[in-house]
Design a protein that fits this description.
mainly alpha; 3-stranded antiparallel beta sheet; 3 strands
Length: 219
């Protein structure tokens, strides 16, 4: 039994540190933590009900991403993150997402497209009823379905890094995005249905860049 404990501990710590990094990253990108503001690992750890060690590990991750810097004898400080920084990240994401959408046009079956239509209908219903947790979940399912269908795991892996710059509760924090997303997604589906790779690419690029514009406008 005792031999199992260290193994469980090793599995648990990355999960907690990732949770810590995700929580603080969202606060920074959404503007709830402002440039120049200091973060105390102990205080932030108490908010998540975790120990200071995984919290500090999470903050070190954000330091490596350039979202935080360490000031001698003062601790972790939020680095500047401008509207242009946000838009640049989404421009990069849009190029990857557009390529994946273009590749998916020749690979998605009619049944898969029908399923995508159902996801989108459910997403629009959730947006109409202000169920933003469900909108967020369905939005991830929508994009994951397209990226997975493209059959390009390396591109899908690359796009994950840029997703760190979108708040986890993106829809709840960005005015007008649920409504804009509905129209954008419909244009992507139309390109996929038509088996028109360039139309699907253009619609996806516009969609991702629109997200960047809306989020950057909050900076």
């Amino acid at each position: 039994m005792s031999a199992d404990v260290p193994a469980r501990t090793r599995r648990r710590r990355p999960r907690l540190s990732d949770e810590a990094a995700e929580h603080v990253r969202e606060l920074i990108v959404s503007g709830q933590l402002e440039p120049g503001q200091f973060i105390r690992p102990e205080t932030m750890a108490a908010e998540l009900d975790i120990s200071a060690t995984p919290m500090r590990e999470g903050l070190l991750t954000l330091q490596s991403e350039g979202l935080l810097r360490v000031e001698p004898r003062r601790g972790f400080m939020v680095s500047p993150l401008s509207a242009n920084d946000i838009e640049d990240v989404f421009v990069g994401q849009s190029l990857l997402a557009g390529e994946l959408a273009a590749r998916a046009t020749s690979r998605m079956s009619d049944d898969e497209l029908d399923a995508l239509e159902k996801i989108q209908a459910d997403l629009e219903h959730a947006a109409d009823t202000a169920d933003y947790d469900e909108v967020e979940r369905l939005n991830h399912v929508f994009h994951r379905s397209i990226y997975s269908a493209a059959g390009s795991p390396k591109l899908s892996w690359m796009i994950k890094g840029s997703l760190n710059y979108a708040p986890r509760r993106f829809f709840a924090s960005v005015d007008g995005w649920p409504q804009a997303s509905a129209a954008d997604h419909r244009a992507i589906i139309a390109g996929l249905r038509a088996r028109d790779g360039e139309a699907a690419r253009a619609a996806m690029v516009d969609h991702i860049r629109n997200a960047g514009h809306l989020l950057a406008a909050q900076r």
